[in-house]
Amino acid sequence: MRCLLVTKENTFTHSLKRIKMGKRLKELNPALQNFIEEQKIFFVGTARSQGSVNVSPKGMDTFRIIDSKKIVWLNLTGSGNETAAHLLDNDRMTIMFCSFEKMPLILRLYGNAKIYHENDKEYIAYSSLFEDFVGARQIIEMDINLVQTSCGYAVPFMDFNEERSQLKDSDIKKGRNGVKQYWKDNNTKSLDGFDTK
Fold it and tell me: Which domain holds residue 113?
């Protein structure tokens, strides 16, 4: 993950030591922004007023901090499209980061989100922040209304090896037109049969 703020690599451990656990904040402070910058995965939780609750892991370089109260992330093509269907009905979203290395920490961002597609002016404006993924599907913008830290003492140590290449490779093989056909064939309805638009 990359922040739009410029940070030094050696600030991470020092910053993490200054983060207090079990705290509620109104916005991201510099130490938490540094923490996010170091993460390789984040988890997104959404739910409609009715139907299934969804939690999705997101990887690759797809997360950006705009400022202390706003983030955006690039949603890549997947087998489902639950986030889109949920946000059309209920704009609440939770994003969670876990520290699997170094010092333990769980960080949750609570807020309200909007979803943008490739012809939306907001998508066009934000797209320059990300790599040009063939499988780019939507950009989600979230306004943060609560930041919470917790200890993460039960989260195991795990070493990052490398990103998987299968998603990129599959999308490149399909091409942009093939990816869009995949959306039509597989991404128009949620698990509960709701429209994803």
Answer: 2-186
